[in-house]
Amino acid sequence: MLYGPYRVLPGRLSVSRTFGDIEAKFEKFGGKPGVVSAVPEISQFTIDENTNDFIVLGCDGIYDRLTTINVVDSAWSAMATALKQAQKIDSTASV
Minimal CA–CA distance to 5: which of 24, 20, 22, 18? Predict the structure, then answer.
């Protein structure tokens, strides 16, 4: 059973940290060719202010520990905190 992030051998590095790791890519250094690719997945979309509230950019370091729901909840919580702080600053500025 695997616990924690998937790791690429040799080196046991997380996938996102092995893009530049030659030892994980070439057999002569003990690596496995084709296991790690530095070709990113890219998505393009139009941001619509009526349907998109925020964008989260994250890597395996975040998603090793949090679910997508946890990340969204954290983003909403941070936005609520920032809004409260902005309202507090605005109310003291007008006094």
Answer: 18
Of residues 34 and 53, which shows the higher confidence score?
A: 53
pLDDT by residue (tens digit) across 60-90?
677 778 888 999 999 999 999 999 999 988 7
> CA 81, CA 34: separation in Å to the nearest integer?
44
Mean pLDDT check: name the lowest of 19-33, 41-55, 73-87: 19-33
| Contact status, residue 9 vs residue 23, Cβ threshold 8 Å | no
Total residue count of the chain as it appears in this document: 95
* Residues 64-67: contacts with CB under 8 Å, at least 24 apart: 64/4, 64/5, 64/14
Question: Smallest Cα–Cα separation from 80: which of 52, 42, 53?
Answer: 53
**Side-chain-side CA neighbours of residue 6 (13 Å):** 7
Distance separating alpha carbons of residues 88 and 2, to the nearest angstrom: 47
